[in-house]
Amino acid sequence: MMATHRVSHEPAYVLHHYDWSESSLILEVFTRHHGRIALVAKGAKRPSSNFRPVLLPLQPLQVSYGGDAEIRTLKGAEWMGGHVMPTGEALLSGYYLNELLLRLLARDDAHEALFDGYAVMVQVLAGDHGGAQAAAQAAALRAFELLLLREVGLLPVLDIETLTLSPLEAQARYALVPEAGLRLAADDETALDGADWQALQRTLEERAPLAATLRQVATMNAGANSALRNQLRVLLNYHCGVSTLRTRQMMRDLQAL
Description:
Elements: E1 6-19, E2 25-31, E3 35-41, E4 61-66, E5 71-79, H1 88-104, H2 112-126, H3 133-151, E6 173-177, E7 181-184, E8 192-193, H4 194-204, H5 209-219, H6 222-240, H7 246-256
Parallel strand pairs: 3-5
Antiparallel strand pairs: 1-2, 1-4, 2-3, 4-5, 6-7, 6-8
Helix pairs in contact: 1-2, 1-3, 1-7, 2-3, 3-5, 3-6, 4-5
């Protein structure tokens, strides 16, 4: 008889949950050492369940689970504390990150650097940055998008032209295009200077890539930030197989109201 695989005290975040029965939930969980996994939380919907107050999105957890099937069984979950739940637009931004991870991460594929970056992101979203709140969160979102795309192999090297492998010219303008990578931009095309792309490539190679890339994005001017946002949005939507991510559409609808 095959021994049941058990994992204990694994750092994790809940990305999403589904009803499984009248009393139980299926959880999509992002773990540090095992990647995205599915867990069944038996009895989690019961008022008396110890899981009920703990299994919240955007909160740092340690989970224990067992089983060898595609959906394992949650044995324990502990809230690790550290920050409050994001609210308002920050909460929607957190759900946006979760949607990206659900769409782009394969099951059981560990990405420790990405997990550490996600942990930084939820702290940024829950933090109080005063009047700079929106700018800080926008820079963090761009940094995480870049890190995610790189980690799953969907981001080309950012200091060379993708097709020619020629080094970028600092003052020339380059567009990031699905399936074509980085190429010289047309006059009317959304693009960044070569120097900006080169700087982003250097930050992604640092020991703490999310923090370094966040600092770099924060130093870029408003026009470059807007161009980066638009190009990453097209790239992400392309690889997610949608015209607009659901959480992005929710943000637009709320802003319109």
